[in-house]
Amino acid sequence: MQTDLALDRKAMRAPGRNPSRWTKRTTVLVLTLIGLVVAARLAAYQLHLASLPPDPIFGAGTERVLDSPLSHWLPVPDAVLGASAYAAEAVLVVLGRNDRFRTAPLLVFAYAAVALGMGVTAVVLVLYQAIGLRSGCTLCLGSALLSLLLAPPAFFEARATLRERARRLGRRDSVSRRNATVR
After folding, report:
1. Of 37, 58, 144, 169, whose CB is crowded by the most CB atoms within 10 A?
2. Domain coordinates of the chain in residue numbers?
3. What contacts 75, CB < 8 A, 6 or more positions away?
4. Cα–Cα distance for residue pair 9/97, rounded to 1 Å
5. What is the pLDDT of residues 83-96, one digit of tens each?
């Protein structure tokens, strides 16, 4: 008979069973770093540190998007916030062991909050470009696409963490019930 620990280790090695495994997190990290570079380039323009990025698809639409009222609504340009969020996500992806969905739930939930927040923000900004500005920005849409691609892995890892928490609580509950019936 296998112990729970042996079954847990076996499940962590099974393909598709461990949402915290490094093969998945490496892919997420690469996409996050690409997003960071894109957002940093957009931020450099918004902070007047670089010229307008070239846009082969939307042309002058990029300037309308990057200089829109929404992009400067907060004290910090929106691309700076995007770059900061990508940097935070990269750090959160790297932290923790291969079994962090079991051992570091707060880390996983922080990662999921950042990634899912970026996904929601991406949808809002794309709708604003399409409906509010009737214009587009290729790099902005690329950043939004990256944010949307990065949300599902965070969601699945957070879901696995919730299931692990529920499983552990169920195990504790069954142990306490067993102990109560023995007395």
Report:
1. 144
2. 21-172
3. none
4. 14
5. 999 999 999 999 99
